[in-house]
Amino acid sequence: MQARGTWWLVGAVIAVWIVASGPGLPHGGSSAGSQPRASDRHVVPNRVMTWNICNPCKSGDFDLAAEIAESAPQVIGLQESCTGQVERIRDALKNRYGLDYHVAYGTVLHSWGRCGGAPWKPGGYGEAILSAAPMTDAVAVEYPDGGSEDRGYMAVTTTVGGRHVRVFNTHLAERRQEPVRAKQVDVLAKVVARHDPAIVLGDFNAVPYASELHAMWPLVKDSDPGCRPSSTDGCEPTTDWHSKFDYVFLRGVEARDHRVRPSAHSDHHMLYADLRPVGAGVS
Known about the structure:
The chain is α+β, with helices and mostly antiparallel strands. It has helices at residues 2-20, 61-71, 83-97, 112-115, 178-192; strands at 44-52, 73-82, 102-110, 117-118, 121-122, 124-131, 136-142, 152-160, 163-171, 198-203, 221-222, 246-251, 255-261, 270-275. The chain is globular and about 45 Å long.
């Protein structure tokens, strides 16, 4: 009887852990069911996208993958992402839509509450870059001061527009933390200045004319042609609260088109830009 009671207790503990670790498991209504065969979609060359996918949120990983597949960017920068979640999104993009990506991570913390996993091995949380072309020289840097939560940037080198480009992805401190963001931008800008061409993706949590972005604007321009640091109403909003916080910043690269797509699965919109091909060559 004692052995039977012990096994019952072990089973109960395992069941509770499985339920509690929900964020680390596939979820969402459209996630269930058999895997459909991959479609004939193709990655759109020279298209780059940034998206804060919102965490914690209740969107299914397959729902997020379906949204990404609609625009099929060549390079994707995700913020507020968990490593296991990104793996599942990447698998869904390949298996359901035929879109094959390499992935690199910019983990800034390990959080069981946000990303699930085992209590003794919580999932990684931070940024991620997905690229159809191989990536090299990946780095992940945590800002000295993250504000109310650890924040950082990551960077990789990949091929966009026919040449090697340094691609950055960042998530700055939350709103109402302007002094912290200003210090973070100073750190990021010094690194971006060393690379030309460069693409800087991310959620900056600041409108274009915010003082904390002053160090970025001399180095880059926004993919949105109507958006400049002096703009007050020329920038297309990228959030549910009608502010522009998300950017595709370009250095030595030109944008051909710029789109903002609202999403039902995040409080940030999907922002992507189609870049002009520049021919072969390495800078």
